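Format is chain and fold; as here:
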Amino acid sequence: MMPTKVWPRFFQFPRHASLSVWLMVTGILITLFFITIALLAPSLEQWNWIQDPTPTSILDNIPHSPPSGEHWFGTDKLGYDVFARTIYGARAALQVVMAATLFSVVFGVVLGLLSGYLGGWVDRILLFLMDSIYAIPGLLIAVTLSFSIGEAARGVPSAAAALGVAYIPKYYRVVRNHTVSIKTELFMEAARALGASPWRIITRYLFGNVIQSVPVLFSLNAADSVLTLGALGFLGLGLPAEIPEWGYDLKVALEGFTGEVWWTTLFPGLAMALLSIGLSLASEGISEFFNPLQRRNAAKT
């Protein structure tokens, strides 16, 4: 009798998985789909599977051409291929989102560790500054910074910085509060008694204990960044016009929009919504993974 082939445990998906698990898997698959098409966008253009999203000559393209075999998502009022711009829009969105969240993580975690551990006037000044930033809506901060940067200096780095500044206080508050509660523990007192330097205490003992909550905030802020970037592009304050971006495409499509050219707004808007939903669903799974209490509660449902 031939032995039955048994798959490794990590290939076996639970038959009676909770709803949260299914939502997490759905979110991860949606996010991976957008990451894949963003990475393959230049290759797809090279293989002639998609057109140039910003061609210098579009005399052969008819403006507001409906979806067809030649233009799967139709063309916009400038004659640009909507399918190509939607694909490249995912690339621009993920570049800005990842850069913005990494920017806010680095500054938020570092400032939170220093503020919580040093205390005193450093903690009071940083706490006042971060609370002031946190009180202002993130979109308003991004709009103000993007307007201050100016059109000539706009690009992925400037857009990421404008978005990232608004998220720094969230990481700062979480890391600072954890640091304040941990620095009085016995193992911290023992490290100081043994002569460990503040740098060693922060990097070796504090960082590993407070960083666990950061991935949850990272995924949530990434989902929010997609919509904020779209809002900046819709207002004309996002990426330059030559870089395909969903918010800017919606702005162009709605200028003189009629119901007869529905494809110019449907596909960019749908892509923006799907990526944001995918990141939000994935963040729920990440939250359960890093929070044992939520994981036990989800297992009961």
Summary: The CA atoms of residues 113 and 207 lie 8 Å apart. The two ends are 40 Å apart (CA to CA).
